[in-house]
Design a protein that fits this description.
The structure is a single chain. Strands 1, 2, 3, 4, 5, 6, 9 and 10 form an 8-stranded antiparallel beta sheet that branches. The chain is mainly β and 205 residues long. It is built from 2 helices and 10 strands, in the order H-E-H-E-E-E-E-E-E-E-E-E.
């Protein structure tokens, strides 16, 4: 595997001068590039709690590869990305529910992840020779992998919502069978828009 990565880097290094020469000869020439992407993924409980009365946070990672087609000041980027989107295992309470088996579940996330395929379209406007204003949008689809397992749970009278922050709290129990949730879709849309600043070290980055 290490040898394969070495050959890939050498191939890109060999191709780069030819691509650079082609674009220097014609600024509107079409060129291609490849890259890797990595990002932190975070969904705080305050955002999830807009839809439920109690949830568990999700902090994870995402990584992938992409191919970029550049023509003048317009980029098209095609990406393949994996993101682990499993929140912490713990208690989830329905919106307006009570701490009984009717409304409270102990939820286990079994490898919940997204395999995303997306296309992004970006335009650049020159501000200075080094800086460009960057804006665009993208669309795609995320294929959902893994399962969400639910167990009926209940708590002793007088238990507060804050006690649910501890998945091992003695105030609540979850002893029933784990049931696979049917609320997980097979795929979700990916839609995003962005504005930003591009630092133009060279024409090829």
């Amino acid at each position: 595997m290490r040898r394969a990565w070495i050959w890939l880097v050498l191939a890109l290094a060999t191709a780069a001068p030819a691509l650079a020469a082609a674009q220097d000869a014609n600024p509107n020439a079409t060129t291609w590039g490849v890259g890797v992407r990595a990002r932190a993924v975070n969904v705080p409980t305050w955002l999830l709690d807009l839809f439920v009365d109690h949830s568990t946070p999700m902090t994870s990672f995402g990584f992938g590869v992409e191919a970029v087609r550049r023509r003048g000041n317009f980029d098209m980027t095609f990406g393949l990305e994996y993101e682990n989107v499993s929140p912490e295992n713990g208690y989830w309470l329905e919106n307006g529910g009570t701490l009984t088996v009717a409304d409270l579940d102990f939820v286990t996330f079994d490898g919940l992840a997204l395999l995303g395929l997306d296309a992004t379209f970006a335009w650049h406007a020159n501000i200075t020779p080094m800086f460009q204003f960057r804006y665009g949008a993208g669309i795609g689809v995320g294929l959902v992998m893994g399962d969400v397992l639910q167990q009926d749970a209940g708590c002793v009278p007088g238990t507060s919502l804050s006690a649910l922050d501890d998945p091992n709290t003695p105030a609540c129990t979850h002893t029933g069978p784990s049931v696979k949730s049917n609320d997980v879709p097979p795929a979700v849309p990916i839609v995003h828009a962005f504005v930003g600043l591009r630092i133009r070290h060279t024409d090829k980055i």
